[in-house]
Design brief:
The protein has helices at residues 2-14, 18-27, 31-49, 63-86, 92-110, 116-140, 147-170, 176-194, 213-225, 229-243. By secondary structure, the protein is mainly α. Helix 1 runs antiparallel to helix 3 (31-49).
Length: 244
Amino acid sequence: MGAFVAKMLLPTVSSLVFLPTASVAAKRGFHMEAMVYFFTMFFTAIYHACDGPGLSILCFMRYDILEYFSVYGTALSMWVTLIALGDFDEPQRSTMTMFGVLTIAVRIYQDRWGYGIYSGPIGSAVFIITVKWLQKMKQLRAVYPEKTVYTQQVGPGCCFGALALMLRFYFEEWDYAYVHSFYHLSLAVSFVLLLPKKNRYAGTGQNAAKLSCFTLCCCVCSIYLAMSKTQKLKLLHFQLSCLM
């Protein structure tokens, strides 16, 4: 019985791998990306917790809403990671990021389980990055970016990303709990590998921008304030039961 419960909780626990990913992104100066990873971790963990035994009290939102934001956060994480990899200048970077935020929201609202929810953002981002890098190569008449980016970031990151998508769409029927947990792990590793080592817009030294825990707590508080009174009472009851 204990092994069965642990297996049911595995997708929830494995969702927490996005927390180290958010930490790495914040350390590299990619604060917006870190916020997206944290958002994805939060809703994915709560969404899977609603399927777990004895954790339905954590469902402070309707199940379909948690499902929507879980898928939306994952797709958006892919988009912002690839846009960061492209190393675009402003205002192109913020424009393309917002374009992804809006279009992905509409696409996932229409269909949450088709291949297009991930292939659309990935394909669009890869096309944009390819066009930019080819233009740079033409201007510089040399390989752009450096070869180490291809060997240490793009290659390994794409391999883990492809593995994650294969697990997600083709192998989950084998054993959902284990396969989906490895999907979370592969996706998180892919984000870490694809994300550049440093955000050139984050500043350096004393002028470097920092993402504090207070900012992340504000995100959680805003979600809490959006909850209904009944949902808040359920969450409070769960917290008290954990302390007893």
